[in-house]
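User: I'm preparing a small set of examples for a lab meeting where we compare how different chains pack in three dimensions. I only have the primary sequence for this one, and I'd like the structure in token form so I can line it up with the others. Please keep the answer compact; I'll paste it straight into my notes.
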Amino acid sequence: MGIGLGIFLLVVGAVLTFAIQTAVEGVNLVMIGYILMAAGVLSLLLGLVMNTQRTNTTHREVVDRRTDADVRHRDQH
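Assistant: Understood. Below is the structure token output for the 77-residue chain.
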């Protein structure tokens, strides 16, 4: 979610900042674009950090081994 959302916010912010020349009364589209691009960069960085932490996890497998003597002892009771 973080990486895709970050790319989306960057693209929308860049479009608002650089591509749209329309002026909306009471709304500064350039500033909104910059805010969206900053949020996109932050989302990308957080997504990359989360992915790095997720890949650095370790798992330990516990195997319970039983010998024939353990099986004979259990059957006698």
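A couple of notes for your slides: Residues 2-54 form one domain. The longest helix spans residues 29-55.

User: Perfect, thanks.
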